[in-house]
């Protein structure tokens, strides 16, 4: 079989293995062309960065699976604003940082719940709600801080984003992996998870099966905000300050990772494992481009290219499957 | 398909009075009322709103938004969206900037702007119409790709010291009104004709109302989709001419956040975000309202950083009230 045909078949039938292959190829290309890329230090170091976009992508995966045009464009701005809330509670209200951090995470959940309310109760399409709050939350973070990062947080807090266990960044072990496992279990082994796929696949059928579609969507958008808040807590610790523009452009990466991992943009399809592999691919890509001295704006540009190419591929594969299905049956 | 307020059918016996009443109840009238009330408030609060200079500024800054909002109206009518217009404005501005700096004639620069805009818009159109990608995904991708391209073309510098070729577009006045506003008015009238009287315009409404029904009625979905994105790109070209003429400088962040103003103008003007319902005239008025609000923030000494909050909340209010009212009608 020609390698091209083999890759396409793999992308269509076995997304995880396809992504592992893509990941390996990307890694090898950067290892051969970029100095300091394939070192043990860098490999672990880049997973730090992957945790933040990874948490956003996990939330995005749940949101997109719920279907009906569900998408969350505001995740980057929720990250920025809840980071600022964390910083303000600590530095301005003098709360203990270990109290402020959970409150910051909850504020992310509250921002997500506001999105969810506007989408499910008022009935505004998710695209418009989260586009509006993408700008509104980002603007609120800038106004609250007057564009100046909040720094001077207590040193003890930095362990979360800068500490290590056996060389592995602490946040991978204590935040990302547990969250990913819980979400995996949620999707695979709970009524909530089955209902989520059901709603995403066929909303009308789900309603006839007595699934509360709006309540379900309310929870996934709230969860997406909560995960963005968690990403903010980790990032604030890693960079030792709360930057009001911390999440700029992250929505693009989160959405790209989700669709790269095999989440169907039409809803009803997607896995946590796929998203984790997507996180690794995008992290390797971003890190490699960064080490190669490519400007951050082109890193976003590259992710934009990956997004459009992936969705084109997904659509093409779906159409091909439709064409070939009757013959196979 | 729901009719435009402008041509809402009425029996002849109902006569002029019902048509007049429909006009007063129309979304356009509501937007005008908001514009007048906000203007009065700003004049009373600051005493600096109703000057010829200030009104000229508001008109000028609304012109570019209004022009692109016309195209965005067609896009949203088909049930799509284009969030890449700000980045497109960046790329086209760079092209215009280089052409002007090279001393090209005005006609040549205009052609460059229109061609570059149409090309970029067509790329969106092709990806959406032939690739079958959701418009938000496709244009979110091009938003980031084109912003990177803008940066690349400028190589981390900016273009300034532009010759005065374009200043007519940006700063010229005719009958005390900015030339740019006349241009916007002319294009609005052309779009009004297109949307209400031409078959293509009616097809666009039909697609947004029910794409499958429109297809079965023999409407060419691909052609209409290509058209709305390409024409939006072309209008971005016009807006870029005004933008460069007005600011006299092209930077790598030219046009960042422009899409928000444009989308705000369209939804404030009453176009349904679900497609199929809306008006071109409403979007032009919406663009003026957006520019007036922006001007108001400056007059009231409110930080420009709050602009995203104000526009975001306005969009949510406009769409939210629409949705609640629609639900009330259904009940």
Keywords, please?
heterodimer, A: 329 residues, mainly alpha, two-stranded antiparallel sheet, two-stranded antiparallel ribbon, 4 strands, 2% strand, globular, B: 331 residues, 14 helices, 2 strands, 73% helix, 1% strand, disordered N terminus
What does the model show?
The complex is a heterodimer of chains A (329) and B (331). Chain A has helices at 3-13, 15-33, 40-65, 75-91, 97-122, 126-145, 159-162, 170-189, 191-201, 203-208, 213-239, 250-260, 272-291, 296-328, and strands at residues 150-151, 164-165, 168-169, 241-242. Chain A is mainly alpha-helical and 329 residues long. Chain B has helices at residues 15-25, 27-46, 52-77, 85-101, 106-131, 135-154, 167-171, 179-197, 199-209, 211-216, 221-247, 258-268, 280-299, 307-330; strands at 173-174, 177-178. Chain B is mainly α. Chain B contains 14 helices and two strands. Chain B has a two-stranded antiparallel ribbon. Chain B is globular, with a radius of gyration of 20 Å. Classes of the chains: A mainly alpha (329), B mainly alpha (331). At the A-B interface, helix 6, helix 12 and helix 14 of A face helix 6, helix 12 and helix 14 of B.
Number of strands of chain A: 4
Helix content of chain A: over 70%
Largest interface: A-B, 45 and 47 residues
Distance between the termini of chain B: 20 Å
Tell me which oligomeric state these chains represent. Answer: heterodimer
* β-sheet strand percentage of chain A: under 5%
Rg of chain B, please? 20 Å
> So how many helices of chain B?
14
Q: What fraction of residues of chain B sit in β-strands?
A: under 5%
Order of helices and strands of chain A: HHHHHHEHEEHHHHEHHH
Please state the overall shape of chain A, judged from the principal axes of the Cα atoms.
Answer: globular
Largest beta sheet: strand ordering of chain A: 1-4
Q: What is the H/E string of chain B?
A: HHHHHHHEEHHHHHHH
Quick one: how many beta strands of chain B?
2
Which structural class do you get from the secondary structure elements of chain A? mainly alpha
The description of the largest β-sheet of chain B is:
2 strands, antiparallel
Mean pLDDT of chain B: 85
